[in-house]
Design goal:
By secondary structure, the chain is mainly alpha-helical. 72% of the residues lie in helices and 4% in strands. The chain is built from 13 helices and two strands; from the N terminus they run H-E-E-H-H-H-H-H-H-H-H-H-H-H-H. A two-stranded antiparallel ribbon has the order 1-2. Strand 1 and strand 2 form a beta hairpin. Helix 10 packs antiparallel against helix 13. The radius of gyration is 25 Å and the shape is globular.
């Protein structure tokens, strides 16, 4: 009897492997093969001189990686990317926590809560390119924002938002904040609604304040979701491309202070420098893995 049952279990398990075949095939074809190919190409000198004459591929070992660190562009553009990500992520997580706590509090008895939840998620559905074009028109030298500020006598002359480092970075960060805070709010709200209400009832009986309940109960239970949000946001931040690309016309102006790692990678691929593009892609993969591991380990230590 036991042998018959174990035989049935084995047969059922086989169906699980059959269902995994499409995923494995797609993973190998569209992720594993390109990854191995990128690492392989990073060890070669391969580019098109003047866009016409092909140079290489010639095996040069780690020379592409040495060039990335020698000219300092990798560190500079990594710094730009992290600064703009932090400028957008900090207000994003704070506003999302506030809204999620607000929506999940039954004592407030908010009317039209589903409507407002849908509204704050809508910016996430707008294409980033359309968002960037909108802000480019709004904050241009002759745009409506400058016209309004001049007409209200707040400014004596139009302010060149995209010609100053701080304002250009804040615009990029603000757009990323608007596009993603709704998604983060929904994730945190789902986590808060899943918390057992008996924890809150016991805390209220013990005389805990709303602030103590939030920091001693809600946040610790939300830690796994917070880790997920932070890591996915970090990965998205390192892949920041479309907003600064369109807003600065691909130049990372002013003086390349809004140039991100992906914009830098795009320039190499646009000029068909496959060797440097491959090396930069590998470095970006390593940086993303290291930073994600640091975030994960840091949160694990905080739990102890």
């Amino acid at each position: 009897m036991n042998k018959k049952k174990s035989g049935n279990v084995v047969r059922f398990n086989r169906w699980g492997y059959f269902f995994l075949i499409p995923f494995v095939v797609v993973f190998i074809a569209f992720q594993l093969v390109p990854l191995v190919s990128t690492i392989y190409n990073s060890f070669f000198e391969h580019y098109f001189k003047n866009g016409l004459t092909e140079v290489g591929p010639t095996l040069i070992g780690l020379e592409n990686y040495k060039t990335l660190f020698k000219n300092g562009d990798l560190i500079k553009y990594f710094g730009n990317t992290m600064i703009m990500w932090i400028m957008g992520f900090v207000p994003q997580i704070l506003v999302s926590l506030l809204l999620a706590a607000w929506f999940s509090d039954p004592s407030l008895r908010l009317k039209g809560r589903p409507f407002f939840q849908s509204v704050i998620y809508l910016p996430n559905l707008i294409m980033a390119s359309a968002f960037a074009m909108l802000f480019f028109a709004l904050f241009s030298d002759s745009g409506p924002i400058n016209s309004m500020l001049v007409n209200m006598h707040i400014l004596s002359e139009p302010y060149k938002f995209l010609s100053h480092t701080s304002s250009a970075r804040w615009l990029v960060a603000f757009m990323n904040f608007l596009m993603w805070f709704g998604n983060t709010t929904i994730l945190l709200l789902a986590g808060m609604l899943g918390i057992d209400t008996t924890y809150y009832e016991a805390a209220e009986v013990d005389g805990a304040t709303a602030t103590q309940i939030f920091f001693r109960i809600t946040l610790p239970i939300l830690r796994p979701i917070m880790i997920f949000v932070m890591i996915t946001s970090l990965i998205g931040g390192l892949q920041m491309f479309d907003v600064p690309q369109i807003l600065t016309n691909g130049e990372g102006s002013p003086t390349r202070t809004t140039m991100t790692l992906i914009m830098y990678l795009n320039k190499h691929l646009y000029s068909k420098n496959y060797g440097m593009g491959g090396a930069l892609s590998v470095m970006l993969f390593i940086i993303t893995g290291i930073l994600s591991l640091i975030v994960f380990k840091f949160n694990q230590q905080s739990e102890k």
